[in-house]
Write a structure and sequence with these properties.
CATH architecture of the largest domain: 3-Layer(aba) Sandwich
Strand order of the largest sheet: 8-6-10-9-12-13
Structural class: alpha/beta
Oligomer: single chain
CATH topology of the largest domain: Rossmann fold
Number of domains: 2
Helix content: 40-55%
Shape: elongated
Number of strands: 13
CATH class of the largest domain: Alpha Beta
């Protein structure tokens, strides 16, 4: 399994991991910074001052870290715990990397070493680092404070303010044994080829569209999913609406709005994307919505002026085409989100 040891700069992740190596026989440390160093020193051109602020802003880094962890997991065996001491403060990066590991059916245990800001500032100011490095680490505390709301929902917390590194490691070991740090995330494998997927557009009385927030990949989505072998697309749309939202629909109630051919982008497959109109949810139906915690963390009705902030550009284009087809009473055909 993967043990991701999160926390702000100066909280003691490295020191705690050293102790964990002694407490957990056969465990190994994986430092994602080694991937960043390899990319910067061997493959990537020098970054301009306006370039990525750190390794985590690099697409290659976010893909290679889960790949390397999966490869080590296969090489060393399931009984070896891989300890990853690194601050991970953007939820979309968490979704992307933890989702990639989950698609390989690898468990991730997420632990945050925590201390209040005053404690962290005192430690950073006393650690003897060069002024430039110290200032960067102090600025990092603001990012940690902003991330705390989602981190508290996602990880097990160990307050280390009054603990030695050994004591912190003992508490982390106890959390791991109890299983309370395991990330509940759907472990469906990523399709290796093109797929057919069916999405359902659902609306409220103000004609806002319902979007959902997956835990296994960044960004928001339409409710829906991949059509299974031998399954009709309308049946898939009905099934996904029930599984993801607890909404009961009937195939005869759905109207096809868009057929979009999506090219393959990154590790997730492309293929045909079908978008159906599922109608308006009344207040009682909205109040009854339920989410599978291992797959979705939230839903909301989103007005048109916020679509671009929630959706990837191709999906925002698909949504606009679907709404135009809904108004015109026809079916739109797209390729890569563009009408043909």
């Amino acid at each position: 399994m993967i043990v991701w040891l999160n926390g702000a700069s100066g909280v003691g992740k490295t020191a705690t991991v050293r102790e964990l190596l002694q407490l957990i026989p056969g465990s190994r440390v994986f430092d994602p910074e080694d991937i960043g160093a390899l990319l910067r020193e061997r493959f990537l051109p020098p970054q301009p001052s306006t370039g990525p602020a750190d390794d985590q802003d690099l697409v290659a880094w976010r893909r290679l870290v889960p790949d390397a962890l999966a490869a080590l997991h296969a090489q060393l065996g399931e009984d070896v715990q891989l300890l990853v001491p690194m601050a991970l403060l953007r939820q979309d990066h968490r979704d992307e990397m933890f989702g990639a590991l989950a698609s390989r059916r690898i468990d991730v245990h997420h632990v945050v070493l925590h201390a209040e800001e005053t404690v962290l500032r005192t430690r950073l100011e006393a650690d003897g680092a060069e002024p430039g490095a110290r200032e960067r680490r102090l600025a990092h505390l603001d990012a940690y404070a902003a991330a705390l709301p989602w981190l508290r929902d996602d990880a097990a917390f160990v307050d280390i303010a009054e603990l030695t590194p050994r004591q912190a490691a003992e508490q982390v070991r106890s959390v791991l044994r109890a299983g309370t740090a395991r990330v509940p995330i759907v472990q469906d494998p990523v399709a290796s080829g093109d797929t057919v997927a069916a999405a359902v557009l659902l609306f409220d009385e103000a004609d806002r569209v319902l979007l959902v927030d997956p835990v296994y990949k960044p960004g928001w989505e339409f409710p829906g999913g991949v059509v299974e072998t031998g399954e009709a697309p309308t049946a898939a749309a009905v099934r996904e609406a029930a599984e993801e939202l607890g909404v009961t629909l009937h195939p005869d109630d759905l109207r096809l709005l868009v057929v979009d051919w999506e090219p393959r982008r990154g590790p997730r497959s492309g293929g045909l994307r079908l978008v159906f109109d599922g109608g308006v949810l009344d207040p009682a139906e909205q109040a009854a919505l339920t989410l599978p915690a291992a797959e979705l963390r939230g839903w909301r009705f989103v007005p048109a002026d916020q679509w671009d902030a929630h959706l990837a550009p191709n999906k925002s284009s698909r949504l606009r085409a679907a709404l135009a087809a809904r108004d015109a009473g026809h079916v739109a055909y797209l390729e890569a989100g563009r009408p043909r």
